[in-house]
Amino acid sequence: MRYLIFLVTVALMATFCAESLFAQILEPIGGPYTADTNTVLLLHFDGNLTNAAAAVGKTAANAVARTTNPAKIYFLNNSGVAGMGQCVRIDNSSSSDSSYITVDDTAALDLTGNWTIEAWANIFTFGQTSNDYRWVPRVVMKPGDDVFYMPNYWLEMWGDNRLFHAGYYTTNGDWISVTSPNNMFVPGEWVHLTFIRDTTRAFIACMVHDANRNLKGFLTKGFDKAKDIPQINRQKLHIGWAGAVGISTASTDSWLDGFVDEIRVSKVVRNFAGPPVIQDITVLPNQPSTIPSYDVSVTVFPLNANGRITNAVLYFRTDTVGAFTGYNMTPAGTNKFTASIPGQAFGKRVQYYVKCTDDNGYSSLSPVDAEATTSPTRYAFWVFQPNAKTLDVTFEEGLSGKPVDHSTNNAKIITHKYLEYSTDRPTVSGGQYSLFLQSHAGVVVDSNWVEAESPFLAAEEFTLDAWIKADSADLHATRIIINPTKEDDWNNANFELSFRNGAAGKPVFTGRYWHSSGAVVLQDTAVAATAHVGKWRHIILERSKSNGVFGMAIRNENDQLMYKTFKTESRAPLMAGAPLRIGRSWFLTTDNWYVAPFRGRIDNVKVYNYPAVGLVTDVSDGSTDGIPWVFDLQQNYPNPFNPSTEIQFTVPKFGQVSLVIFDLLGRKVKTLINEERHAGQHKVTWTGTNNEGVAVATGVYFYELRAGDLRKTQKMLLIR
Fold first, then answer.
1. Rg (CA), the chain
2. Does the domain spanning 277-384 belong to CATH 3.30.420.280?
3. What is the C-alpha separation between 358 and 537, in angstroms, rounded?
4. Which residue pairs, CB below 8 angstroms and at least 24 apart, start in 359-362?
């Protein structure tokens, strides 16, 4: 009996060891392959279009040639890749050739889980714009049912930047894709393309190998398991064209002219040797000079099963030409490594990247082209002085002087078109001049905009403080002040003040900032054209890093609060990578209204890298969109009075408001207010005169507040 148990134990151990050894065996890449139980499609193109995986993959027995001229699809020996036999030539040497290959749709071709999609390709010609029928040659694609560019999956090349691209479309309307560096594609060269989706570790990867199976490109990206689910469809799989016949929007610019060979689709992640997968890395925004170090972490794991990461190195430098210093990163949990960049002095610019290596000797970089010999990309941040004013433009340089930044940051101020000042300025903020932005007859792209250039104008927390007097607010998306992520971007910004359509469908004051997944938006409740145009308004945007609250306040020409609103968002703002613009956003040089320019006056623009005004630091509930004001009319003060008194009141929502003085007989003496007002607290002064400006006599007077259906009256005494 013991001997039997021993034999069983030995057998189980042998089986376990064999399975472990099998799991570690790396599969050779590029074929020619033999179909196994995980193969859905396998096309060798050895003189025919036979699907060698038809039986096991439950797919069509043959691919089908689609062409206006049968001579345009034919077979030749593959002399460029050793051991491959023949390949198929798809000849699309003119826009009328219309040659491509399809595989009939089956359930097995609809991929939603793990997959590995492979193809050899040798593309001869390509287009460089969407006007060319070969602009984006598709190697393998299962196009969408309604429009071709919503596919289950794709492998392709883009002619304008000579890059490779792979991805899939999700059920919630997103594209999950990876893009190679520019100029990786070379016309007439064989490449092997591999597209992997790994649901266990939630990443996609694309490998590009040359004709000798040497790796020349590796791209990865993570995805959300819960929501980034591939969208299946009823279309045929396409080779050589994106498709598709019978849908509302077919492709006109995706014809492939060249060779294709050994296409394999597998419903498993093939155990190929490849570089480590870097799924996440700390991308540091600008950092304060007051902390001792800047921590960087990276999540990385081997591509192949049972591989391991042998080392991860953080490289950094504090100038643009010197050598990088490398720090070995320390393991910090499953697949995670950490290291720190030493603290730097104010004004330093730090560049860094990470290099990870596995036990097969493969390495990955993040960014992927960090060690490129030409135009490398690295992560970078500037070291700033915390709690500082980073911009102070008062426009007090006179009618001919160029604006100057009066902060210690000393940002470079760039003016465009005509530089014009106005003596119309906010009376309570001091000074003599404001910036005047207007159109000029015959001048295209004209609004006299001003730019402030400095690396310190973007921060995780900020305050924008400015005075605005608009001449008009009738166009949606008018940018007043924007701190964009890059020069040609009119959306993604560290912060933005603009006129955008509000709840009523008309432009209102709008504050926004962008994070990694979208924008946080704050909007006024009053239509700007009726409530603000022609009047000075003091606008404040502010965000606190500590509580994540983003707030906007609008104050009137007397600097009294009219409206404020808040939202909470823990995700940090994107960092700016271009000059801050005052007066407009990026634009098309041929179209003055591509993004509407601001018309009016701007004064006293100040930016801080902390919540300097205190708008958001004392907010207990940042999610409150506005303040729950109640209707109230307070007793005037002083009372009795001579010669003037102040009346304070509160209205619960934006609307028409009137405040009228009556005598004891009910006769109207003075209309103090009859206009639209925001929700909130307001105050007004009565100087004891009637509507004609004549002083009234000693006596008892009543003042009545009306806001919609709400009404309240108080009594006061004037003593001469």
1. 34
2. no
3. 59
4. 359/302, 359/307, 359/308, 359/309, 359/310, 360/26, 360/273, 360/302, 360/304, 360/307, 362/215, 362/273, 362/274, 362/275, 362/276, 362/303
pLDDT recorded at residue 625: 42
Q: Residue 50: count other Cβ atoms within 10 Å of its Cβ.
A: 15
Q: Are 389-608 and 632-718 in the same CATH fold?
A: no
Residues 6+ apart with CB under 8 A from 564: 551, 552, 553, 554, 615, 626, 627, 680
Architecture category of domain 39-266 in CATH: Sandwich (2.60)
Which tens digit of pLDDT belongs to each residue from 604-643? 999 999 999 888 876 544 333 445 677 889 999 999 999 9
Q: What pLDDT shows up at residue 587? A: 81
Per-position DSSP letters for 568-636, written without gaps between them: E--SPPPPP-S-EEES----BTTBTTSSPPP-EEEEEEEEESS--S-TTTT-S-TT-SS-----EEPPP
Predicted structure pTM score: 0.69
Whole-number Å distance between alpha carbons of 85 and 327: 48
Query: CATH number of the domain at 632-718, please?
Result: 2.60.40.4070
Query: Any idea what DSSP says for residue 2?
Result: H
Q: Which helix (H) or strand (E) holds 354?
A: strand 349-358
The pLDDT tens digits of the residues spanning 232-247 come to 999 999 999 999 877 8
Domain residue spans of the chain: 39-266, 277-384, 389-608, 632-718
Cα gap 307→25, rounded to integer Å: 10
The residue among 715, 479, 441 whose CA lies nearest residue 587 is 479
- Contact 380/352 with Cβ under 8 angstroms? yes
Sign of CA dihedral 493, 494, 499, 504: positive
Separation of alpha carbons 296 and 283, rounded Å: 8
* Phi and psi based region of residue 494 (left: phi greater than 0; alpha: psi -120 to 50; beta: remaining): alpha
Fold (CATH) for 389-608: Jelly Rolls (2.60.120)
Tell me how far apart the alpha carbons of residues 508 and 296 are, in angstroms, rounded to a whole number.
41
In Å, the largest CA–CA distance within the chain is 122
Q: In the Cβ-directed half-sphere of 620, how many Cα atoms lie within 13 Å?
A: 1
Phi/psi region, residue 57 (left: phi>0; alpha: psi -120 to 50; beta: rest), is alpha
Q: What is the dihedral of CA 621, 624, 628, 629, to 10 degrees?
A: 90
Conformational region of residue 650, where left means phi above 0, alpha means psi within -120 to 50, and beta covers everything else: beta
Regions of the chain where pLDDT drops below 70: 1-24, 592-593, 618-628
Question: How far apart (Å, rounded) are the C-alpha atoms in residues 138 and 119?
Answer: 11
